[in-house]
Amino acid sequence: MYMHLEQCPRHLLVCEKSNFTNEKSRHGIHVQSHYFNYQVNMLIPECAVLPSELNALVNSFEKYYLVKNVPVYELVEQQFIDRFVKKGSVYALSYNTQIDQDNTVALLPTGTLILSVDKDTYEELGLEGKSSQYSHKAVMRYVITVDLKSLVPGTAKNKRVMWALKEKLLVKCDFLIMWNSPGDEDFSLSTHFEKYQCKEHAPAVSTKVLRDLPYPVIQSCDLRGNPEKSCDASEFMEWLGAVTSEIECNNEASNFLSTFCCPEPSSVMEKAYLCTVTGFLLPENICKLLEQLCHYFDEPKFAQWTSLTVHGFADSPVSWGSAEHGFHKGGENFYNFVVFKNRDYWLQMAVGSHDGCPP
Amino acid sequence: MACHERMEDDSGKYERIVHKNGSSYHYLKISLEFEEDTSIRLNSAQFKQLIISSLKQLFGEIGAALPFDVLQFEENTLSAVLRVYNRDLVKVWSALTLLGSYQSEMCAFRVQQVSPFLLALCGNSRT
Fold it and tell me: One GO MF term, please (chain B) (predicted)?
């Protein structure tokens, strides 16, 4: 009778294992193609003070700008394209827009502008797009994609896009924006957007040392776990979630409140260093952090592994690459690296129901 | 030991597993709000009992017997993290939604985030 009540939305978890020294390892590509990152959590067992190299990296995440009330046509202006899009990587994401109800805009570093708009906006704009993959029977959301690098000034297409966004319907958003340029340039985003309210923000860093922490035993060679010897990747990930949210893992089976326990087999670590960086984070910075985490084991350490979790923006129109992302019950799109002493790594990538399978 | 033997061969070997609906649980971040400033205080046990009674109201004895965990509870903000089985998600969520009062004071549960991954709850860009 209640069968339909027992269904829940689909979710996917991809677990991979490989080695950083493996030529075909795709860890860098996975990090680089996850464009819009909101938070990074780093957990280092048996560590109370962050090594100086890691500390320097954590504090050197690029600053980003929050520009208020910008019309979207500003991103299509030839001057913007010439100054920024063609001379580096621009990351821009509309801020405080919810992808399941508002119009959401993103500019990928590849120069692709993505507008995820509701049906009314789509019809009024009159630009060519595709219906969202995650529509119901009646399509209520459309995705418009414009390749800015291939827009030629003066062509009919260019004029049409400008006209639609400027005169037909003025779509305005607050934007989180960042520009990763190859060298010193003549222009900065703050001067380009000076007529709008443009404020620079630095990612927020918070750290914590956790004491006497039960942890699941894992072995790099055994992604699937072994009942007596080690835990599997998804059990580890659940435990990691509990630790990051500071959830008690020492409950008994008869406890009224919670029966949640650290997965078995387990051990106890004396201390662990948890570091969180929150903001609009560049994939390049995360790559550097991951690289440095591998070098953590260059000197002898008590820890067997370290972990690095990266959360994407719940309301980004893409997750990895140009794969469409949406928000259903949640907008989760995150990945976690477990870096082992012997340079092996586990990579766990998770998405909710409005997302394709991670790469 | 078996693993060590395999490490010789398997170390660094590429392997990929895709879990579809692999998690048996869903996690909910919720908070309880009272309509007016109230002197009512709840501890964690009373908080869980309140949820159980709302399940009982809606689904009867069977509802009251649904297993779920209060993984975390903050008394000051009356916010909590729940863990429920996937099959019970709709029932727990609907019971939370339909609860209207505690000790004759108007109140409501706000569901802030829902995810099949506990790890997703610490990095919510929607606040």
Answer: ribonuclease P RNA binding
Taking CB atoms and an 8 Å limit, are B18 and A19 in contact across chains? Answer: no
Query: Comparing C-alpha atoms, which of A267, A271, A251, A273 is closest to residue A214?
Result: A267
Range of the domain at A312: 2-62+203-352
Sheet with B101-102, strands from edge to edge, namely B68-74, B79-85, B25-34, B105-115, B101-102
Helices then strands, counting H and E runs in chain A, come out as: 8, 15
Q: Which of A201, A233, A253 is the last residue of a domain?
A: A201
End-to-end CA distance of chain A: give it in Å, rounded: 38
Q: Which of B2, B45, B118 sits opposite A241 (nearest CB)?
A: B118
For the entire predicted model, the pTM comes to 0.94
Between chains, do A241 and B122 touch, taking CB under 8 Å as contact? yes
Confidence of residue B6 (pLDDT cuts 50, 70, 90): very low
**Å between B106 CA and nearest CA of chain A:** 24
* B28-69 per-position pLDDT tens digit: 999 999 988 778 889 999 999 999 999 999 999 999 999 999
Whether residue A254 lies inside any domain: the answer is yes
Whether B83 contacts chain A with CB within 8 A: yes
